[in-house]
Structure formats: C-alpha cells, structure tokens
Amino acid sequence: MYGKAFAPEYQGALTTLSVNSSLTDVLVAGTEELRAAERTGRHGEAARSGLAVAEAHRRLGQIGEADRAWKASFRAARAAGDTGAMAWALWSGGTLARQRGEFPLARRLLQLAADLGERGGDVVVRGYSLAGLAETGRIQGDYEAVARLHEQLLAEARRRGEARHTVWALEGIAQIHRNTGSYDTAFALFEEAAEIAARAEDRRGHAWALRGLADIVSVRDGDTERALELLSQAEQTCRTMKLSSALAYNHKMRGNVLYRAGRYAEARDLYEQALAEFRAMSEPRGEALSRLGLAKSRARLGRDRAETAAELTELARTLDRIGLRHAREMVARAQQELDTEVVR
C-alpha cells in the first residue's frame, strides 16, 4: 500500500537526497546548490535549494540561520513567480515559528502556505501546511479543534499512499489519545506508525513512533527497561541523522521514564541534559517541559518545598504566556502531586 518514504522538501537539484540523509549532508549539498543558483540568477532553483537549507538548519536547532534561510527562499520564489515554492517557504517559516513557541505567527504562516498551495495546485504543500496547523493546535492542547483535521489528513495520506505523512498523522492522533488517557488506542496507533515507517524506511518517523511507544510502555505497563530500550533504539537514529530536537525530546522522555520508576537522581540528570539542549536551540516548549521534570525530580530529592512551589508557579505563568494549555495542566497536576502551595 505504501511506497518508500520521500522528502518533498528536498526539491530541484536536491531531489536525489533521501528522507534519511544526515542533516549535515543536506546542509552542505543545499548550500552548494543555493550558491550556484544565486551566482547564475536562477531564482526558482535558489528558492528550492534554500528550502532544504532552511529545514536542515531548523532541525539542527540553528534557529537564526533557519529564519534567514526560509525568508531568502520566499524572496527568491517570489522573484521567480513560483507560487508552489512560495508556499513551501512559508510552510518552513511556520514550522520554525511553532518550534520557537510563536503560535499565532505559526498559524498565520501555515494558513498562507496552505492557501498558496491550493491556489498553485500543489496538494503536497497544502497537506503539509494543514498538518502544521493541526500539530500547532495539538501542541497547544486544543484537541477538540484539531482532532477532526488530523483524521482528515490521515485519510488523505492513506488514499495517496504517502507513508511519511500517514506516519505523522498516526503519531499526532496517538498523542492526543495518550494525553487524554486512552493508552491502549494510543499504543495501537504508535505501533502502526512504527510498522509503516519501518517498511517505508522513514527513520525519522520511526524514531518518533518508538518514543511514543516507550512513553505508553512506561506509563501504562510500568515496564521501565523496555521503555528505555525503545528510547535507545530511537536515540541511535537521532544521532545518526543529527536530529537535534528529536534527540532532546528523547532525553526528556528518558527522564520521564526514570522519574516514574522512582529513579529521581537519574531523571534529574536527564532533565538537566534535555534542558540545556532545548535552550541551545531556543525551543521554549521543550525547555518548559524539561524544567517541569527537573523541578519534580529535585523536589523528590529533598529540595525546599517553598522553592519548588515558587518555581512551579513561575513555570505556570510562562506556559500561560506561551499558550501551552496541556503543559499548563501538567504543572497543575505536579502542584497537586507534590502538595505545593501556589505562591501568588
């Protein structure tokens, strides 16, 4: 049903790149082609190769470079009159904005990308942009609003036999079920995503699916060692492909697994590592979740109760400001779990 996964963001002269290409290799090839296109005045090719450069920088956690690259790609696409390339550049910019916690900007750019994709007849960039909008809502915890869109995009991806997009949609729906307590459904969806990703050779999608399975195995089954084994498998892929953000989330999840097992000192160390990684790439959501895990671990290790209460209150304010509803609810549960008093 599904063919081999491909990376539609690698375009023009870069279509030979694999979905599993190391991001450092993508960056080198993309930069070389971009410079050549700029020297010869080929605006369309500059836009297409610039997109790959922007995405490589983003996934490597190089935020400033990614921001400059997607904007340059958009300008080149506009100069070439290439509606599809303009849409792809906006998709990249919207995805970067979501990664930085700038959710209103992310929604605006992704909606523009979807509109341009539809106008230009590019169903792939339209689908990716709508998927970005769905993921933005899911990350913020607005499950009711985006669950139907996730299901719609899954149906479209299945119909076209697009393995990578099918895997993404399955993982998004699985995460909604996991966060609302439907662990068995979430596990089945993550498992299907892992199977499709493995058959389609989508190593990035497979790594994220393994992370989801590890979470369920830990929280539902209490099987710490199996969860850690799954995370180790995923980490190997993250390191091979230089997936900085995915690796940081892997470390944060490892901290979650160890915390649930009562191994608080080990969890603290993993949360500290993940926090440093997220701060290095300016990713506020990951940073906030790592801070929460770190605060809980330190509390279990004997930290002063008032200090813990003050930190959780400050973190709650940060999450309210960013607009992360689900993470904000996690802080409220932590306050109850640790029996802290909210400092007002």
From TrEMBL:
Keyword Repeat on entry: yes
UniProt superkingdom: Bacteria
Keywords, in A-Z order: Repeat, TPR repeat
Keyword Repeat: yes
Short name of any one Pfam family annotated for the protein: TPR_2
Xref: SMART domains: TPR (SM00028)
Species for this entry: Streptomyces davaonensis (strain DSM 101723 / JCM 4913 / KCC S-0913 / 768)
Protein name according to UniProt: Tetratricopeptide repeat protein
InterPro entries reported in the protein's UniProt record: TPR-like_helical_dom_sf, TPR_2, TPR_rpt
